[in-house]
Design brief:
Two copies of one chain form a homodimer.
Chain A lengths: L3 E3 L2 H9 L4 H8 L4 E2 H7 L5 H13 L3 E6 L5 E6 L7 H20 L4 E3 L15
Antiparallel strand pairs in A: 2-4, 3-4
The structure holds a DNA duplex.
Chain lengths: 129, 129
Amino acid sequence: MKQAIYNIGVEDTMRIIGGKWKPIILCHLKHGIMRTGELRRAIPNITQKMLTQQLRELEDDGIINRKVYSQIPPKVEYSLTEYGESLNKILEDLCVWGEKDIERRKQKGENIILLNKEDVAADSLPYAD
Amino acid sequence: MKQAIYNIGVEDTMRIIGGKWKPIILCHLKHGIMRTGELRRAIPNITQKMLTQQLRELEDDGIINRKVYSQIPPKVEYSLTEYGESLNKILEDLCVWGEKDIERRKQKGENIILLNKEDVAADSLPYAD
DNA sequence: TTTTAAAGGTACTTTTTAGTACCTACTGCA
DNA sequence: TGCAGTAGGTACTAAAAAGTACCTTTAAAA
């Protein structure tokens, strides 16, 4: 059995949700169940390979569920596990912080664009400013 | 001027605080001012090069301050900017989630160790490696 | 006189991560 | 008949990130 040694908790968190695609995948899944194709369309530029690979790792870490329907053509649904949902607040905060940061940089004259503010559910979320 | 396009806020957040070392550096700096050497001792295994490089990038993104004292030998202090402090809650949550996750995995029999629950830390102590 | 400590620079190499291209199976539809 | 949609797998390559080794400056201490 291989041993894992961490110096600080955040190392473990980042091992699990870090990288280029995992935070994005999780930020979509926190809204509910999604099929593979939905995720692929929701995440422009991700390849089938990277999507599947990242989903497998998240599944192995107990963050997401993979539900396979035995039918043709195949149907697979992904969702956060109960444990994965313990990340909901963090994921939301990460999204919102980024949205505000982009807004801030835009104000400063940077050429920066956010395509989907899909996350905010704007009317239900009071901005603490 | 180069253009930055994001599909979702979390992409920007991760660009700024993601990677192997930045979350760790920031989790230390959220406790207050630290000198370069303190950070180096607090983060075992980080090299001088990576430390400086990551600190520069965080500075460029407006997250941390770099205060240079004109003296020999040199003295440089790093701290979160006011803007950087808007990440405090997120950083704390990332740390705590990881600590709990490590505890959970340990209970499940995984061979996993957390050396410093850094929030009680004497994080300026020189650790032998 | 040599060494140490401080902070950091730079060229180069290695490792890790991500991307490309092409493959599977099955069924319905035009 | 042949292609689209669905959810993958796999070998190989490219790019990004991180690591190694060695360099600088200066004052004080050994």
